[in-house]
């Protein structure tokens, strides 16, 4: 829970409320933020000390009456003559909100030129070094509310918010605090950046710190192992997560490996690894044609819908893959074989299929043996899907004996029955074979 420093009640001008914060070590400060549990004070001065409180130097003034309170003009123009002096501003002096109001500024803010690195109180290397802070506040109301604020200070790579106790919510990787002062900081509860073991350095971001509810402002630098993001917590473009490994694993991100022709780009889904495929292309890497498409020779449209001849409806009735086998159909054909389609190639007006004949259930005058053979189908029959046939599939083929183009192999045409194979058909076909031997086909 948030706690606050509270002054004695009813402290009124000209009495001041003074809060001195001893940091114990020298720190390089990049921003100052003060949050008030009561309304913000009407006037406030911030001093800094480089010698542990022995001497104090004005750092910033806030007041609705800058001239009266601090003998400073309000929002004075910055010149070379006064750029190293503490300035006074009437911003952040409104009593609203009544609780939780902020006064904050960064050393890199050009509106506060006295905080530049060339200040006589700076190191000249990375910011302003302090060992103590002292805010002096004049209350804005007569109510018995605390007028002293929780103080927050920050350094490159570190931040500490001081309320009832000091703690941290930002990274220590890549800190700018060096030497003996760095040794002292190691005793504080400073949390490291969460870079999932993919980065060696990080930086502090004030805006992210505020957006996180003042818990963390670390941003990882130079994420490795193909990761990206503030915490190196996701894969960079062209890679996707290997969910079998934790995000902290050096091989948590895998390359997309999208097909150079089939994919529309080389960036895949970072969760599934799915590449963006061109029309008619499928597969996680877009490496094959989708159902109903065939491969073309075009790198722009690698998969196209095969052109169906305009007179197919009158030429044949395309197979829909729901054909049934019975004794009558068995008897009408010269041969019945179980085949496995191995490959296909175009040969003039014919398609030449290399098939493996697994079983022979019927054969006519042409002797058909088991093993690899050639199956010929006219290109028009294939275009009209009479029959419909695909490589690497098993079919039951029933056809008639015809002369093949090379005098070897078997022929199928629009009258042939080509049905995708089912293991339950083997027993039925053996029964048909036995009935044929008994002369049943002549009666069918």
Automatic annotation (TrEMBL):
The lineage of its organism: Eukaryota, Metazoa, Chordata, Craniata, Vertebrata. It comes from the Eukaryota. Residues 143-175 are annotated as: Disordered. InterPro entries: Laminin/Netrin_ECM, Laminin_N, LE_dom, LMN_ATRN_NET-like_EGF, Netrin_domain, Netrin_module_non-TIMP, TIMP-like_OB-fold. CDD domains: EGF_Lam, NTR_netrin-1_like. GO terms for biological process: animal organ morphogenesis; dendrite development; motor neuron axon guidance; tissue development. This is Netrin 1. Coiled coil: none annotated.
């Amino acid at each position: 829970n948030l706690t606050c420093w509270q002054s004695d009640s009813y402290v009124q001008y000209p009495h001041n409320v003074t809060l001195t914060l001893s940091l114990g070590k020298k720190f390089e400060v990049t921003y100052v933020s003060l949050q008030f549990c009561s309304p913000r004070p009407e006037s406030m001065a911030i001093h800094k000390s480089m010698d542990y409180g022995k001497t104090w130097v004005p750092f910033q003034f806030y007041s609705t009456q800058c001239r009266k309170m601090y003998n400073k003009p309000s929002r004075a123009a910055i010149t070379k003559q006064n750029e190293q002096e503490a300035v006074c501003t009437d911003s952040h002096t409104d009593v609203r909100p009544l609780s939780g109001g902020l006064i904050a500024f960064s050393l890199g803010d050009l509106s506060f030129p006295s905080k530049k690195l060339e200040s006589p109180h700076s190191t000249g290397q990375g910011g302003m070094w302090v060992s103590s802070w002292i805010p002096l506040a004049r209350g804005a109301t007569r109510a018995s509310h605390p007028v002293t604020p929780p103080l927050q200070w920050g350094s490159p790579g570190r931040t500490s918010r001081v309320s009832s106790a000091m703690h941290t919510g930002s990274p220590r990787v890549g800190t700018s605090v060096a030497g003996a002062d760095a040794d002292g900081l190691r005793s504080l509860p400073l949390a490291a950046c969460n870079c999932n073991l993919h980065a060696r350095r990080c930086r502090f971001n004030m805006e992210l710190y505020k957006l996180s509810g003042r818990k963390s402002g670390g941003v990882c630098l130079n994420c490795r192992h193909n990761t990206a993001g503030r915490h190196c917590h996701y894969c960079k473009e062209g890679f996707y997560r290997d969910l079998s490994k934790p995000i902290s694993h050096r091989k948590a991100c895998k390359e997309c490996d999208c097909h150079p022709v089939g994919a529309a780009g080389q960036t895949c889904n970072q969760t599934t690894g799915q590449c963006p495929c061109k029309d008619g292309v499928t597969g996680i890497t877009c490496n094959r044609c989708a159902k109903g498409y065939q491969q073309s020779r075009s790198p722009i449209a690698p998969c196209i819908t095969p052109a169906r001849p305009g007179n197919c409806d009158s030429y044949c009735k395309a197979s829909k893959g729901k054909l049934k086998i019975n004794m009558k159909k068995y008897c009408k054909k010269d041969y019945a074989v179980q085949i496995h389609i191995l490959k296909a190639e175009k040969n003039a007006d014919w398609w030449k299929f290399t098939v493996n004949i697994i079983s022979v259930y019927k054969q006519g005058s042409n002797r058909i043996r088991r093993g690899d053979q050639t199956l010929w189908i006219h290109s028009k029959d294939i275009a009209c899907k009479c029959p419909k046939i695909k490589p690497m599939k098993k079919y039951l083929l029933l056809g008639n004996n015809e002369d093949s183009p090379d005098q070897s192999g078997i022929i199928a045409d629009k009258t042939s029955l080509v049905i995708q194979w089912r293991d339950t058909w083997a027993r039925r076909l053996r029964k048909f074979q036995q009935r044929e031997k008994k002369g049943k086909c002549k009666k069918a």
